[in-house]
Each structure stands twice: as structure tokens, then as C-alpha cells.
Specification:
The protein is 42% helix and 18% strand. By secondary structure, it is α/β, with parallel strands linked by helices. The chain folds into two domains: 126 residues, Rossmann fold, CATH 3.40.50.2300; 258 residues, Rossmann fold (3-Layer(aba) Sandwich), CATH 3.40.50. The strands form two sheets. It has an eight-stranded mixed beta sheet, with helices on both faces. It has a five-stranded parallel beta sheet with strand order 2-1-3-4-5, with helices on both faces.
């Protein structure tokens, strides 16, 4: 890795954005110098301006598309023929077709112009790392953990648990957390988060042959909680194009970019579900204390055992909507399934339904018993839940972290 500074060029007619870029590039760990500012509209770019760019040979070009997005994409396509150069684009929210055209034209990252200086700096850092000459190169990181949530019966609440679990893991640990909706036919994670994704898991599969960290960022939705989302497609028929092997390759790739990958699966043993389970560090089986739920898990356990890479030690049985006074006890569950219940989640049905209908995850709204149980579960999984007499004080500090204002990373 070379320690020299990278040269950056900026093309923007917006003085405010120009000042924003200057601020972003002041980070000492970037090792990037803004060597050229070109406040010229795309339609007025002539040979003199092109010549200045070619003479400078910047490794990073930041392009503001707001002046004329369509013409700007054509301009990026013209620039992208230069070797050893990364292009970062910023501008208004683009229609999916135009954003896809921009990615095909050669951008490594696309950011809204409202993005923070920190977000812009991170995009520059990603670009410089891809070039192999970042001033403070990437540290060797351990592969992320994959936690898959599966229920063998619809309506058990596994999607709600997975969604809220991802948010709490991120907030407790401040680690990069991705929520993947692998219910490719009828996934509803985006609905629970109240977002409308531009791209989905299927789009990523179709473009995986050219995927890198910069392009990955274009397919991810970022929720105000700080969690990232890779959504299921809206149209069920698109699920047919995805194979189990493609899912394995993508999950392996995502491990290199996130600390936690929380996967929600369909309620069947589809190729997508089995591939996710095969790649998982932990598999959370979600059950209700009713006979259909427990019977389906009992029927599915032999198949699960065949897929689990490290055996039943990977399984964690969660009982959702738990009533201590119910007809079926936790001991009954253990005798029936041969698996000890790992965690119970309170029956706070009204609060959970309200959170789903409003698109506001319940762990971000109030202090319901269900939220309390999810937060304690996430602390346990993350290795933050203390033992013995210190539990109250340490958990109090953890809960304090969870009460940060929405949107704070």
C-alpha cells in the first residue's frame, strides 16, 4: 500500500456542495487532496475542461448530478473509461432506472446531496481502498456473524423479532448491521421498517458478477436507526431467479462488509432458507406455544439437522407471545422437541401490531415488555448481558444506549 495522497477532482455548480466536499476531505485518515474544482455545467464542458481533467489524472472524481442528471450520467460514462479512477456521484433522489444507468456508467458510490460530511468521507475512503492507496488503509477484519430467523408456521412473529433484533444489535454495539429479507416471495421487512427500497436482493443477484463495496452501498437502504436493509422483491415471481448457491455466495460476500447480518427467511424449507441456514452462525427457531407451531418444528428438525454445519449447538429456540399460565409449558416444549427454550418474548400483541401498522419498529417506540425482552435477548447474543449481581447496573447502561435519538449512528 502506497502512502501518497490521492488527487480528487470535483465537478459541481453548487458552491454549498463544494464547501461540503472540502470539509469532508479534511479528514486526516483519507489522504485525499482536492486538486481541481470545476464549477461548470455539463452542457458547457469543452475540450479545455476535459484537458484539465486528463492532465491532472485524478484518482477520485466527485460529480454533482443536480445540474442535469441525465446528461451527468452520460458525462460519467465518458469519464469512466480512465483506468485507476473511481467516480463518486451525488445529487437528488434518482429514479431507479437512472440510478441503475449511473451504476452501469461506472460510479462506485451514489449519495444524496443531503448526506453528511462523514458519509461523503466514508464514500471517499471506500473508493481509495478500492484503488489500493488509501492513506489509512482498511484494517484486517473478522468475518461478520450471520443470524438467521426461521419459523415453520406463518404468523409466529419471526419477521418482527428479526427486524427489531437487528436494530438493537446495532445500537448496543455500534457495529455495522445488515438486515436481509430472504422471504423472497412475500417478505415484509421493508414494511415493518417503513421504507420503500429502490433495489432488492434479486437486483443484487443479477449484478453480483461486478459487485464490490462501492456498488453494494447502492443496493442497501439505510434506516434512520442505523441498520442497513437488503430487501425482498415486491413482486413474488422475481424470487424464481435466485438459487441457493447464489445466496451462499452473496452471504459469504456480505460477511466481509458487516459485523452482523440478520436474515429473515420464509416459512418453508425453500432453497433460499436452507442456504441461509447453511451459512449461519446461529439459527433462531421461532415458535408459539400452540400445537401447530410445535408440530411443524418437530417435523422440520431432521432437515434442519442435516443442513446445520455445526450441529444443534447452532440452534436457539425462541418462544414468542409467551404466557406462563398457558396450557403448554416450557418443559413440555423441551420434552417434545428435545431442545431447551433459549428465550421467551412476552405477549404484547397490541403494541407489536401498532408498530407494524405504523412502520415504526417497536424497540424505537416506548418501553413495552416485548421491547424489554428483545433488548435483553440482543444483549445476550452480543455477549453484553452480565451475570449475577452486576446485571441491573450494566443493563441500565445498555438501555441508555438504546435511547439515543433516532438517526444517531
Amino acid at each position: 500500500m502506497n502512502d501518497r495522497s490521492l488527487r480528487a477532482a470535483l465537478i459541481s455548480t453548487d458552491p454549498g456542495f463544494t464547501a461540503h466536499v472540502r470539509t469532508a476531505l479534511m479528514r486526516p485518515d483519507l489522504g485525499v487532496a482536492l486538486a481541481l474544482e470545476s464549477p461548470v455545467r455539463f452542457a458547457e464542458f469543452d475540450e479545455e475542461h476535459v484537458g484539465a481533467l486528463r492532465q491532472l489524472r485524478p484518482e477520485i472524481v466527485i460529480v454533482d448530478l443536480e445540474d442535469d442528471p441525465d446528461l451527468g450520467v452520460k458525462f460519467i460514462e465518458f469519464l469512466s473509461g480512465t483506468a485507476n479512477q473511481k467516480i463518486i456521484a451525488a445529487g437528488p433522489t434518482l429514479e431507479p432506472a437512472l440510478l441503475l444507468a449511473a451504476m452501469r456508467a461506472g460510479i462506485s458510490d451514489y449519495l444524496p446531496k443531503t448526506s453528511s460530511a462523514e458519509a461523503l468521507g466514508e464514500a471517499v475512503l471506500r473508493a481509495s481502498q478500492q484503488l489500493g492507496v488509501a492513506g489509512a488503509g482498511p484494517k484486517v477484519r473478522q468475518p461478520g456473524q450471520i443470524y438467521t430467523f426461521f419459523s415453520s408456521k406463518g404468523g409466529s412473529g419471526s419477521t418482527t423479532i428479526a427486524t427489531n433484533m437487528a436494530i438493537v444489535l446495532h445500537r448496543l454495539t455500534n457495529k455495522r448491521t445488515l438486515l436481509v429479507d430472504l422471504d423472497l416471495e412475500l417478505g415484509e421487512v421493508a414494511l415493518l421498517l417503513g421504507v420503500q427500497p429502490r433495489f432488492t436482493f434479486v437486483d443484487m443477484v443479477q449484478n453480483f458478477h461486478r459487485m464490490d463495496s462501492g456498488l453494494l452501498a447502492s443496493y442497501i437502504e439505510q434506516h434512520p436507526s442505523g441498520v442497513h436493509l437488503l430487501s425482498a422483491p415486491f413482486h413474488p415471481e422475481k424470487a424464481e431467479v435466485v438459487s441457493g448457491e447464489e445466496i451462499r455466495r452473496i452471504l459469504h460476500f456480505l460477511r466481509q462488509h458487516y459485523d452482523y447480518i440478520v436474515v429473515d427467511t420464509s416459512k418453508s424449507f425453500s432453497p433460499a432458507t436452507l442456504a441461509a441456514i447453511d451459512q449461519s452462525d446461529l439459527v433462531f427457531l421461532v415458535a408459539n406455544l400452540d400445537l401447530p407451531s410445535l408440530r411443524n418444528i418437530q417435523r422440520g428438525l431432521p432437515m434442519l439437522r442435516r443442513v446445520l454445519a455445526h450441529g444443534e449447538d447452532q440452534l436457539r429456540l425462541l418462544v414468542n407471545r409467551y404466557h406462563a399460565e398457558g396450557d403448554i409449558t416450557l418443559d413440555d416444549v423441551k420434552r417434545t422437541l428435545g431442545i431447551k427454550v433459549y428465550w421467551t418474548l412476552s405477549n404484547d400483541y397490541g403494541a407489536v401490531v401498532d408498530s407494524i401498522n405504523t412502520g415504526k419498529p417497536i424497540v424505537l417506540n416506548g418501553t413495552s415488555t416485548y421491547s424489554r425482552d428483545i433488548k435483553a435477548l440482543a444483549a445476550q447474543v452480543a455477549g453484553l448481558r452480565p451475570e449475577g449481581g452486576e446485571r441491573r447496573g450494566v443493563m441500565g447502561r445498555l438501555v441508555g444506549r438504546l435511547r439515543r435519538p433516532e438517526g444517531k449512528k
